[in-house]
Each structure stands twice: as C-alpha cells, then as structure tokens.
Amino acid sequence: MTKIVLTIGGSDPFAGGGIQTDLRTFSDYHTLGMSVLTSIVTLKEDCLSIHPIDTEIFAAQLETIQNISFAAIKIGLIANPAFIPLIETFLKDHPDTPVVLDPVLAFKEGDLALEKAIVTGIQKNLAPLATVMTPNLIEAQALLNLKNKIATLKDMQVATTRLQTDFNTAVLLKGGSRLAGKFAVDIFATTTGQLSHFTNKKIDSKTINGAGCSLSSAIASGLAENDKLDEVIKNAKDYVYQSIQNGVVVTREFGSVYYDRKFEKVEGTQIISKIGGETWK
C-alpha cells in the first residue's frame, strides 16, 4: 500500500527547495505527498522575501488533513511563530508518526526578532517531538545559542552531542560546504548519543539549491518504510548526492537539485564510526 507523507513548509518558486522539492522527493520514493503551506518566497532585485500565510488559513489547512493517517511528517520553513503551537498540537494528535524536523532559518538580517521567536518555539515546542532533527551549522548555532561558529569537525561533534542531549532526539548535523576540506561530513547522533559520520567528496557544482530540503524529505520518505534511521539516512544522502550531480541549471548564478531515475553514477556515502587519519583532511 502506498504510504502518505506530509510536508509543512514554504513554497520556492525556483522548485529547488521548499514544498516543491519535498513533493518531488516523496514521489521519487514512491510515497504520496501532501502539503501544508507556511509561506510563499519571492526574489526581486536580489532581495529574498518570505510572505507568511495568514494564520487562520494555516490552521484551516491543518484541520483539513487532521484525520489522515500519515506514515511520516517533515517540517521545514515555519515563517511565523504563531504557527508553532498549531504544529505542536497537530504532532501530538499524531503521536505514532515519525517526524523529521528541518529547522530552516532563511530570514533577512532585519528579521532577527522573528527568527529568535521561531528558534525559541522550535527549542521548546517542536524539537522534543521530533524523531530526528537535520540542522545545518548555522541553524545548530542558533538552536544552541552559540556565539562562536561551528568551524571544525570537533566543533561539530560537540554540537551534535549537545543537540541530542538538550532536545532528547536523534540529530543529523550537516557540515556541507561550510566545513573546510575536500569532504562533506555530516554527524549523526542516535537517541542514545552514539555518534557516526557520513562523508562524501564535495561536488564542485552550483546545482545545490534544495539539497537540504531534499535530504530531510528523503529521510521522511525512508522512515515511512523503514525505522532503521542510520540506513534511512545513508540512502537519503546517496539520493541527494545523485540529485546534485544531475541537477538542473536554472539561472547563470545557481541551479537546483534534480533526481533522474535513469541516472546511475553515484559515489556511495561512507559511514565511519570515528574520526581519524587523512580521511578528514
């Protein structure tokens, strides 16, 4: 039977991230995707703007799908702190459903108060309900209230452990391009605090728009069929790696991830239990 997966997030008109990528990823995993929209993103004269959906409309969307039996739920860009208690109630009404929390923080510098309110809501209301969180380095810094950047592999280890301990959930901390070196390293902490490391060679490509959204959506789709989180993450990372390699150039400046079922070339993600040696240089 086809599983149903829900995404709660924003719309990306470039179809690289947000709801568009989530639904495409769900389809690639042969699950039926449903969506609740939090915002619409626009880009005009290099100015990114996030336009939240009216709170009553957001609440009505959740009410519309209240009785659906979901195999997994993915939460992305929230856009308005007023949405957080509504999402919290919805998750509590679906207590047996795996939840992937991707704490997207895409706000402009002038929106610091808004970002802080959303971070606080994620910390207090949503993170404790998540099956796994998938922050990048900047998002992890915000969630941990760190003043210094997470800049090294050791910093990542410490941050991952703190996130897991503080929020009592599994964590996948994404190093991505912000971590120096030839390898993209993500660190995974289980609910018991055990750490493992997923690594790929970095890809020199501009077709990376939507990689984070695609990864969290792939994890949600994987959890709809498999409760072994380490296997789900490994498969999701391989999927995203292929999606970057096969991405579509959208403008001269950037491109978006895209998965082609005919595309077979992939360098498999390595899972490493501990750090050491030349691998990380």
TrEMBL record:
Reaction catalysis annotation: 4-amino-5-hydroxymethyl-2-methylpyrimidine + ATP = 4-amino-2-methyl-5-(phosphooxymethyl)pyrimidine + ADP + H(+); 4-amino-2-methyl-5-(phosphooxymethyl)pyrimidine + ATP = 4-amino-2-methyl-5-(diphosphooxymethyl)pyrimidine + ADP
Leading EC class: transferase
Pfam families for this protein: Phos_pyr_kin
Pathway: Cofactor biosynthesis; thiamine diphosphate biosynthesis; 4-amino-2-methyl-5-diphosphomethylpyrimidine from 5-amino-1-(5-phospho-D-ribosyl)imidazole: step 3/3; Cofactor biosynthesis; thiamine diphosphate biosynthesis; 4-amino-2-methyl-5-diphosphomethylpyrimidine from 5-amino-1-(5-phospho-D-ribosyl)imidazole: step 2/3
Coiled coil, from the record: none
Its EC number(s): 2.7.1.49, 2.7.4.7
Keywords: Kinase, Thiamine biosynthesis, Transferase
GO CC annotation: cytosol
GO BP terms: thiamine biosynthetic process
GO MF: hydroxymethylpyrimidine kinase activity; phosphomethylpyrimidine kinase activity
Domain called Pyridoxamine kinase/Phosphomethylpyrimidine kinase: residue spans: 12-257
UniProt cross-references to InterPro entries, sorted A to Z: HMP/HMP-P_kinase_dom, PM/HMP-P_kinase-1, Ribokinase-like
Similarity section: Belongs to the ThiD family.
Name recorded for this polypeptide: Hydroxymethylpyrimidine/phosphomethylpyrimidine kinase
